[in-house]
Amino acid sequence: QVQLVESGGGLVQPGGSLRLSCAASGIIFGIYAMAWYRQAPGKQRELVASITSTVGTNYADSVKGRFTISRDNAKDTVYLQMNSLKPEDTAVYYCNAEYRRIRYWGQGTQVTVSS
Question: Which band of pLDDT confidence, cut at 50, 70 and 90, is reported for residue 25?
């Protein structure tokens, strides 16, 4: 059974930082491209950052320079370090694993940026 379990979300003030984690099980983690998506109320789900099996990374323009995606294949875990958070970063953040046409999603973790 494949599971992607996110953690690390919460309430943070503008300018603050959070680190999200996504622990995978049931897959050969190292061959999967991993990504973080987010969905704000009333908006479509959007790609935030992705990292390939060879550690190539890609970021949405809105988070470049503030967010960093990384992976630890020994721990089957992908991370999203989020700095300089803004109210517009408020959303449910989802972990995604993709290999060819196979995709898995986590259940999501809420991030709220508010004073």
Answer: very high
Query: Tens digit of pLDDT for each residue in 76-112?
Result: 999 999 999 999 999 999 999 999 989 999 999 999 9
Average pLDDT (59-85) is 98
Q: Interior CA angle at 41 toward 40 and 42, to 5°?
A: 110
Residue at token pair 């898995």: 104
CB 51 within 8 A of CB 35: yes
**β-pairing, 18-25 with 3-7?**
antiparallel
Extract the runs of DSSP E, i.e. beta strands, from the chain: 3-7, 10-12, 18-25, 33-39, 46-51, 57-59, 67-72, 77-82, 91-99, 102-105, 109-113
Sheet strand arrangement including 3-7: 3-7, 18-25, 77-82, 67-72
